[in-house]
């Protein structure tokens, strides 16, 4: 199947942190290139593609998180309106007038409303609407009607299909980090036509947005010899300095920082250069925000590296990317993982 | 239950210095369980063996409480202090502090606007004349707790350290109540929850449970002009949906909901925007543990007058006991 | 003197190779076994008699530093701190950038050209830059790369009396103490961990402790001393020259009370001055070690150090000497202890 089409359906599938089952189903059904797959206790989807080398083979973990930021119901008001809070880091300013879907006894669509500007005094109008003043209108006429479908604690996702923009640009919700998952699938697809020594554990992790939680438990279970995380990085855009972004349409970012093993960094960079895959360098002085950070300190430590797919307007429902970056990241991953031998893995412990 | 609670809330156990409270609890429960032991961080673990073929269930209630630690003694014998866990400076002036040896002090404050109060503008007065006299009673590095008696209000009770001695009471009462169970039950009275959920982390690693349940207090939204929150006092055991440390495993949420409904136990769902419990550490142990939290609704959390409803406490006991005796089909 | 070499060496989080390369030849003849792990921790194992406790001693090799985040068209370097640095200490300092240690300065707008109101505000990091003397992006790009670390260039010096000056006593002083302890014979099993990435979250110690599985641990650290003019007595935290510091609590750990008591008692028995660290801020490797696996009783022994996390810090060599003596007494006492007594 075309990975671009998969990305579109991945973007649309609901899966806020802790409720990633649907997203996992989409990924699993889109991936015929593996030998086995399982889900662990927290719901991480772990897909194994065996290598051809003699045992013991190197174990490579790929990690892309499949959870998205979203909302959760906190209260159902007398009039049938629904109050909510965020799961993961939403800027409340982007929420007004968004269409959403709540996943209760059945799925229902609604819109996020607030007091209209006409009835606000001028002072109010110059301020942002705080989260606690917003509500969702599902069209329920009463508390009873709402309560028949929805309960406190039900998850809510943005209702948005991915849009094709000009050229290879695409916008949608949850590109952070379904773009990473798509790159991981692209890698598996390419590896299927290649020889590779190492066992590949392609892992779609859960609960990254609330604290890298799926990465903690999945890496503990897999015990990889090295791990590559794929996540969304900040794409260049007006108003944000170049030093804080990576160029969109110029291939994946390769992160530099304490969470990146120096030898792994050199090897991945070299692979990109050998295969003429464009990349940017992504300096990460504060490296805590991706699965890499958790995997690196699993058990007695794991050599890790991070590839970033540039995404603009991060943590909004219109996350925008260039599909060529996803394809390039997938290719780079495939070429690099295919090159990994036991000797290389052993060298990662020698400083 | 009332007297158990009174004994627990009035005993001494700031984070990292829980041996007194752990000894008390051990005495209360050891005749009802197969084994009790303490581990290196100071957790008390009580084991009740299952009849056969069951799961390993870990229940955790933290026995530590928020408190103070002395950082400096000045020439006039006044003590400066830092907080142990999340003490709000606004709740402190005029309140009393007790140290392990029984020394009592009163919290005073420097001049300045009340709204500008920070912990480093507060001090403890233990009623001495100078540094030497103070040093005979208290040393830099001594831990203290808030001092306040427990009061039975009838329907409700108020005391310091309801967080989480009321959770300990729920476990103690459950231990007394549970007869035969197929499961191996590990009741863990955890240390150092208030300073970063530490005891639950090391004990979960050791126990390797199949199911983890924390018992802790949660905030309510039922007081005048309270922040919006659905939980209220008297509406039953709160089944946590999420807080900052945990998104309850959907299977565990389903399990607890089924048992509450089957047992006619009053319950409510809880979405807590901040805060965490021992389940936050348990569910990330090793390759992951399906975990959830049963919360006792509590007003005025982290003040010296935390308040709970007796019916809610009973509902929590019933729900924990129901888990112990269930076949846990959701986890198959 | 090795402390001088260690503190002059450059080793930002994740790039501790200069420090590791200084330590390795010193440690090798003193250890029964030596290894590095996936993160770059250097672990030296000294075997001891069975039945006595196996102690992990940890000192971190990394230091706070700056990371080059972009090269401007005019050849200036933008940067961000790695680890906790107060941006106000950065202005008008000299730095060395990248593996080639290219000299640069952190520039500042002359006072003449500032508005009066500007002078009152600290300069935020995103307005600062490193000037290498290059005139174009290409020019600078030949010397440094994005992601390179930049370090302060302060050299170790002995000042009046017992004081020494250096840039990275936090925690090269700990590394040096750990080495001094390995040079003595204590007849007890020691795993000496020279850890990485303490400044970005106590990370190297976490994986090292998982691997080592010690019975107990002590982190050897440098900690802030605020015994300076303007600070009231109760905010000094520690006093330079007042002896090594014992921690009763910090953000990362409440040290095992029995270990703290043992250290206090030993200091008193041996007439070694010590002080309690009178503050609960900050974290140390003991935090992550204490929570490893099923838990490890842990303590912290720290040298008081003025102006920590800045280009220049001060320590007292008397404190250093006393810290080594106290730890040595502690290790001797372990040789006479059973594991269970802890």
Estimate percent helicity of chain C: 25-40%
Query: Terminal Cα separation of chain C, in Å?
Result: 36 Å
Count, helices of chain C? 9
How would you describe the shape of chain B? Answer: globular
**In angstroms, what is the radius of gyration of chain B?**
20 Å
Radius of gyration of chain C: 21 Å
Please identify the top-level CATH class of the largest domain in chain B.
Answer: Alpha Beta
CATH class of the largest domain in chain C: Alpha Beta
Count of helix runs of chain B: 8
Number of strands of chain B: 17
CATH topology of the largest domain in chain B: Aminopeptidase
* Biggest β-sheet description of chain C: 8 strands, mixed
Task: Using the coordinates shown, work out and report the CATH topology of the largest domain in chain C.
Answer: Aminopeptidase
The largest inter-chain interface, given as chain pair and residues per side, is: A-C, 28 and 37 residues
User: Taking strands numbered 1, 2, ... along the chain, how are they ordered across the largest sheet of chain B?
Assistant: 1-2-12-3-13-16-14-15
SSE series of chain C: HHEEEEEEEHEHEEEHEHEEHEHEEH
User: What is the CATH homology-level superfamily of the largest domain in chain C?
Assistant: Zn peptidases
Number of strands of chain C: 17
Give average pLDDT of chain B, whole number: 96
Care to describe what's here?
The complex is a heterotrimer of chains A (351), B (332) and C (342). Chain A is of the alpha+beta class and 351 residues long. Chain A has helices at 3-12, 21-29, 122-125, 143-147, 175-191, 213-222, 262-274, 291-296, 323-339, 342-347; strands spanning 36-39, 45-49, 59-65, 70-76, 82-87, 99-103, 107-113, 135-137, 155-158, 163-164, 169-172, 199-205, 226-234, 253-256, 280-283, 304-311, 319-322. Chain A folds into 2 domains: 3-68 and 173-347, Aminopeptidase (3-Layer(aba) Sandwich), CATH 3.40.630.10; 70-158, Peptidase M42, domain 2 (Elongation Factor Tu (Ef-tu), domain 3), CATH 2.40.30.40. In chain A, helix 5 crosses helix 9 (323-339). Chain A is globular and about 70 Å long. By secondary structure, chain B is α+β, with helices and mostly antiparallel strands. Chain B has 2 domains: 2-65 and 160-331, Zn peptidases (Aminopeptidase); 67-147, Elongation Factor Tu (Ef-tu), domain 3 (Beta Barrel). Chain B has 8 helices and 17 strands. Chain B has helices at 2-9, 19-29, 131-137, 162-177, 199-207, 250-262, 278-282, 310-325, and strands at 35-38, 44-48, 56-62, 67-73, 79-84, 96-99, 104-109, 122-125, 143-147, 151-152, 156-159, 184-190, 211-218, 237-242, 267-271, 291-297, 306-309. In chain B, the strands form 3 sheets. Chain B has an 8-stranded mixed β-sheet with strand order 1-2-12-3-13-16-14-15, sandwiched between helices. In chain B, a hairpin with a 5-residue loop joins strand 1 and strand 2. The longest helix of chain B has 16 residues, at 162-177. Chain B is globular. Chain C folds into 2 domains: 2-63 and 167-341, Zn peptidases (Aminopeptidase), CATH 3.40.630; 65-152, Elongation Factor Tu (Ef-tu), domain 3 (Beta Barrel). In chain C, 26% of the residues lie in helices and 25% in strands. In chain C, the strands form 3 sheets. Chain C has an 8-stranded mixed β-sheet with strand order 1-2-12-3-13-16-14-15, with helices on both faces. In chain C, a hairpin with a 4-residue loop joins strand 6 and strand 7. Chain C is globular, with a radius of gyration of 21 Å.
